[in-house]
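Notebook entry, structure prediction.
Reason for the run: the old model in the group folder had no record of what sequence produced it. Starting over properly, with the input documented here first.
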Amino acid sequence: MVNNDDDWLTIPEIVRAAHARLATNIWDYSCGGAESETTLRRNRSSFDSMAFRTRILRGAARPDTSTTFLGFRLSLPIMLAPVGSIIHFDPDGALACAHAAELAETGTFVGTLSSPSMEEVRAGAQGPLFFQLYVRGGRDWIEAMVRRVERAGYSAICLTADSGAYGRRERDLHNRFFPRERGGRPNLEGLPAGSDGRAREDHQAALTWEDLAWLRSITGLPLILKGVMSPEDAELAVEHGVDVVYVSNHGGRQLDHGPGTIEVLPEIVQAVRGRVDVIVDSGFMRGTDVVKALALGARAVLIGKLMTWGLAAGGERGLQRAIELLRTEMAIVMTNIGVKTVADIDGSCVRPSVPPAPNPWPVGARPEPAAFEATTGISAVV
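New structure, fully documented this time:
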């Protein structure tokens, strides 16, 4: 059994450590999806329909994993996704994520529903921070939030548009775990009337493209639109002045029977035609996943579940180690397919392939229930 974070040599070890340390309801909350979890499983299984095309004798030793995003240099094309419930996985919450990202020289998305406050996170970390916005009030509420984000010194606003109705996450329902009823939402404090956390149906679900255009008009910060899953919406996003299209299905936690994000990524990249950057999340667990997304046109990938498990396993150090292992895996892939830089990764690096049969003998002794592997992408062992 691994007890020391310095002993973690693989990502699966970190995931298993998180599983061992988390209460059942928090583990299920972290890894679950909506209803039958079909979307969640597709986020993982879709990677299996792609294989790498290897090129040799290309001088790809010591590949450069760095990239840029909104003018910031990142040491690798992996950022930390916004998770409102992050406080359940580390007492420092979003600040712990920002610290880990700073050490990794990458960016962090800070959520509206996360703790501590956006001001505390900004004051406590030096790396690039991007604020994820849930709408819980009318336009006066939105403008007040935007001004607060600007004063706090964030580098972009990321509007989430894919969560008008809260998904039926049956793991949480079976556990009678209702995280939305818990308090501690410092980013919602001090705003105009109508900002009650239960205002999702009144405001989040009522958003329109006209509201997006209005938001674009009231701030000079770069605007990111999260939850884009169709090329039509990607085209509309560009037409409405969005700077970054964020492909996401909320980790399969909102809509059951949706496609995996890697499935729709190519058509969304084609729709934006290089006019804006495209980033993607939902189901990314390995360096191979990251390289496949880059090959299909993503600027960067964001990790959410793996971020929470890194924190649960070992706090900031656990998350740092998870990022280090992703970097190592990514660099090995780049060398072995013959690319020297992130900019060299393109569609020629991948090809369609037949999904493999399940691994009949996972690493380790005997497998745990198949649900562990289906929801984490990690072969479960004990």
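Summary: The two ends are 9 Å apart (CA to CA).
The old model has been moved to the deprecated folder.
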